[in-house]
Amino acid sequence: MIVDIFDRIKGTPGPLGQYAGIGDGYFMFPRLEGEIGPEMVFNGKKVLNWSLNNYLGLANLPEVRKADADAAAQFGLSAPMGARMMSGNTTYHMQFEKDFSSFVGKPAGFLLNFGYQGMISIIDVLTSRKDVIVYDSESHACILDGMRLSLAKRFTFQHNDMVSLDKQLNHACKLADEQGGGVLVITEGVFGMAGDLGHLADIVELKKKYPFRILIDDAHGFGTMGANGRGTAEHYGVIDQIDVIFDAFAKSMASIGGVVSSEPEIIDHLRFNMRSQIYAKSLPLPLVLGNMKRLEIIKTHPEYREKLWTIVNALQSGLRKEGFNIGRTESPVTPVYFDGDMGQGTNVVIDLRENYGIFCSIVTYPVVPKGQIMLRIIPTAAHTLDQVDRTISVFMEVKKKLDEGYYNRPIQDMNIFHRK
Ligand SMILES: Cc1ncc(COP(=O)(O)O)c(C=O)c1O
What are the boundaries of each domain within the chain? Predict the structure, then answer.
């Protein structure tokens, strides 16, 4: 029986789409307005915003805004036209990728037009059908999608579980040996939901036992982790043992794009083979120049990272002191776990936004187990200690209300404004 594709789509809205009736424009696709920073406007009201990965607060720095504006005035958004391979390459692109990778601690790099697409192609190009990928079970969607594209076999290891990794590496190496292929381990520097770190030092230790290469996605680690902000590999002192490092600019750099860094021959191979770059337009020059400015600030102004960690430490130690469960985070990402179902969770968020003026993201099943709600707080260098104190007090009130059953009511009673 043949079906009409549109009919099928209309009948299956998808895991998020099914909640569009109550959540579109509020929980999903909310509009945060105003200058990027801790205070923005949501639903017509000023909110204290804890939901942007603008970790170092660079998004709204006057010198960053000026660099962006000057570059846009000089080049416009169109330049360069075409993919880098064909007609979209410039000296700026080449200079910037070199500078970025050398800061990260690798001799060569390739600038990517978008992080997500870049990562997909990195995995595709690094692996052949004879190879085997071993990846952390909580890997980001771009890693999962990269593996869908890759022809390699794959095994998953339990999140950050070295016994499980050892076991999977054992299987993977046997299979690779039979097939005449190699093994690639993929994990993240900082896991963006729970804030815990990939156990990079333990993983590279396993190189003594098994022959493999390792690729990390350090989207959240770049700029936040390590003595100089070079990332999670710097934090663990294992830059040399990590074979390929991927960084995205959507977080600390408060921008768009990414860089993959490795040995020159590997980067050359990626440059000539990554389809998401060969067949797509290169990063516009205002973004390249704006990114150069951001990198310079990250290199020369450690005070933004220091301020970030002052806020992170105050927030995380304050929450822990008040008995909140913030899980295993070791990075700025601050998850706050509550016992509760989806209905209670959505009511908590409405109360926070409408009555306390606090905006943060809510994460529910399947990212957290059923019966748990996670509120995800992203501290930045632009926040203040007063804002931290206010948030902890509000969370204490909300927790009390949750325990007393205040949020066990239908969502309509919480006065949600569903704005289209
Ligand atoms: C861990 C991780 N990897 C990759 C990406 C994708 O990067 P981009 O937004 O630059 O496409 C993100 C999200 O931005 C991320 O959180």
Answer: 18-49+302-413, 62-300
Contacts (Cβ under 8 Å, ≥6 apart) of 408 = 343, 344
pLDDT, residue 415, reads: 56
Using 50, 70 and 90 to split pLDDT, how confident is the model at 419? very low
E-only strand ranges, 167-270: 183-188, 213-217, 244-248, 258-262
Which atom of ligand 1 lies at the shortest distance from residue 140's CA? 1
Name the CA radius of gyration of the chain, rounded: 22
Q: Quick: pLDDT tens for 142-174.
A: 999 999 999 999 999 999 999 999 999 999 999
CATH code for the structural domain at 62-300 = 3.40.640.10
pTM above 0.90, yes or no: yes
Strand 108-112 relative to strand 258-262: parallel, antiparallel, unpaired?
antiparallel
Tell how far the Cα of 172 is from the centroid of ligand 1, in angstroms. Answer: 27
Write out the two tokens for 317.
């130690």
Report cis status (omega within 30 of 0) of the bond before 286. no
| The domain made up of 18-49+302-413 is a member of CATH 3.90.320.10 | no
Does the pLDDT value for residue 33 go beyond 90? Answer: yes
Asked if residues 264 and 108 have their Cβ atoms less than 8 Å apart, the reply is yes
- Residue 385 confidence (pLDDT) above 90: yes
Quick check: 70 pLDDT over 50? yes
What's the CA-to-centroid distance between 281 and ligand 1, angstroms?
A: 19
Alpha carbon 161 to its chain's center: 21
pLDDT band at 367 (very low <50, low <70, confident <90, very high): confident
Angle at 134 between CA 129 and CA 136, to 5 degrees: 140
The response to whether residue 221 sits with its C-beta less than 6 Å from ligand 1 reads: no
Question: Beta partners for 338?
Answer: 373
